[in-house]
């Protein structure tokens, strides 16, 4: 947990109803003093887990004006997206530029650089590949995470590989990935402008 005298990080969670986002929201509330804004297209699908620290905002990432409004005053953006991810990445970058927010944690997928030995993921990864390229070309303080397939294993057990290195495995627990996101949220400068593969250690 961050120190009691440290200003709590203000985190905007995009795609807040996704499986990983919901798990990470729980971990951030339990293990940090972060204040969260949960942003999703249909707010009625999500119950506010802690109204004293959490604000729920309904909006689409492609609605840059709404996104910009939700982003005001935030320290960090953490994005879990699907669909037209490159277009969404551009909308996030535009809103971050307009609001002065610099730090972005963006969830992608293993395989976008052909880094998984013996696997050649093709068009299914195009949205992840394209959005990562958009973010890497930006001037943001990003960290792109390329996890393996999610599972429900409770243990926190993971290894990190860097861009250009072979990916280390195929699976990763939600708790492991949420633990890494917690570290990124609470440790300024950690893995800045890096693309990290994350799999079971």
UniProtKB/TrEMBL annotation:
The answer to whether UniProt assigns keyword Cell division to this entry is no
One GO MF term: biliverdin reductase [NAD(P)H] activity
> NAD(P)-binding domain: from which residue to which, for each copy?
15-188
Q: Where is the signal peptide?
A: none
Q: Which Gene3D superfamilies match?
A: NAD(P)-binding Rossmann-like Domain
Q: Which organism is it from?
A: Microvirga ossetica
What are the UniProt keywords, alphabetically? Plasmid
Q: What protein name is recorded for this chain?
A: NAD-dependent dehydratase
